[in-house]
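Record format v2
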Amino acid sequence: MNIVVEEQKGIQFIRINGRLDGTTMQIVEGEFLELVNKGSKFFVFDLSELEYISSAGLRVMLLSVKKTRAAGGKIALFGLNENVNEVFKISGFSTIFPIFQTEEEALKFAAS
Amino acid sequence: MMYVLEILVFLLLIMMAIAFIFWKEWRRTVTLFNIGLELSSTIQRKDLLQIIMKTAAKTMNAEGSSIILVDEERDELYFEVAIGEKNEEIREIRLKIGEGIAGWVAKTGESILIPDAAKDPRWSNRVSTKVNVPTRNMICVPVITNGKTLGVLQVINKKGNKSFNQRDLRLLEMIASPTAISLENMFLYEALVESLETLRKTTAAKERMESELQIAQDIQRSFLPGSSLQMGGVELFACLFPAKVVGGDFYHFIPLDDKKLLICLGDVSDKGMPAALFMSGLMIWIQAKANSYHTPAEILQEINREVSSEDSTMFATIFLAILDVQTGQLCYCDGGHCTPYIIGNHGVRALEGIKNLPIGIFEDGGYGDQEVRLEPGDSLVLYTDGITEAENDQGQWFTTNRLFQVLEGCTASTPRVVTELLREEVLGFANGHPQSDDIAIMVANFDGIRANFHSKQKM
């Protein structure tokens, strides 16, 4: 798994590729918490290169939602492949995340 | 003639002098040899340090002696002094390397002879007052082996109110060299003892941990209701295979009254001990809420309220249903769990429906009920993603497709057979690749004939 974080106009782009599971979730958690502690509250997760997400991986996504809500911020996801989308759908997680097809739509939502 | 006699006396004196020198040299060799023997007589710290000090004092004709060791980790020197009337108490004194005469010797690795300690600026008053011996003169030499200073050896106050000289200095340096070897042996021995002790402790801790885990597994198993049940027209079989000793998958079945049976199966979003603890809590909440609320959605809503908190990200996917064992009517609530299957005369079909959130996500999460009717002969198949995500050596997954195929082959089998077949297929697929996720399976079959027979009997 690899994670790249970049900022555009006050919005943090978190791009994850590879597998997000019990082992790699800690890296994402660490990166995310660091951003939150620095005061960031608007996030766009680029999941277009994410191959797989496990239930432990979902925990870090849940953490991001909880922290963003607590900070009064916004979060948006885009680019989920078929497998990852299925996991979000089955687990009901698709109801707690604004999920978009494209980066532009996700950015528009997070910035509004 | 007189002249010859004088020469003879002179020669005799020279010979005696030479003999004396040889005798002294021989005595010194014997002394050093004996010192070597004495120093190698023990490897125990307490005895060895005593022998070193006694030997040095005796050989050097000194009032006292001490062996001061280097503590590499703390960059300090330390030595033990006996205090109290009968020397019964041992106190450790520590010096910074560089502090005092011993500290200077340890730092520079050079010997030092001090004819008058009181006049020497390197003399540490701190030590002098602590050991309570007025120091007149002293020799201090480094104890070195393989270029490493292990400590310093010092003698104080030559007996008979005399002072130490250069010859004494050389003698003490000679004593220092077998001392170094015996100290090095002592350190090696202590390191060995310490590593054996560490090994013993680690082994003991590991055994304790394993036995605690074993107990935890027994406790976790005791929360499960067993593996099979026959109630009215329903026959049920369930099993659980944790990937580690304990795990986060779970199932439950509770008869609520004569015709209502609660069944559920779920998966905590973690593995090992944290998941097992969360699972244990859930099992108790399921038991506690099952009788107080009427529908699966109400029960899940209540459990969710109990286990959700703002900071926690621990959650569990869960499928919970109440089955009428006389009619086959199934009321269920799907908390984000793997889609169940219904197998029977019609073949295999997925129980698609509204997906609610898993429990433990948000305290105020809403849950909704759905209904389906099991036809006579139908079986409800519940499972966790340990089945569909079981991996083989090539990194391939078992997948829902394979699950579907296996179920297609056993639509008429009993719950026990379906469960066992599924388990065997997954094991065969993994082909020895270690199980990375917990597996839970539950199959509940509704048999119309048995149900009718049962209800007729009651009438």
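DSSP finds eleven helices and 17 strands in chain B.
The first helix of chain B runs from residue 2 to 39.
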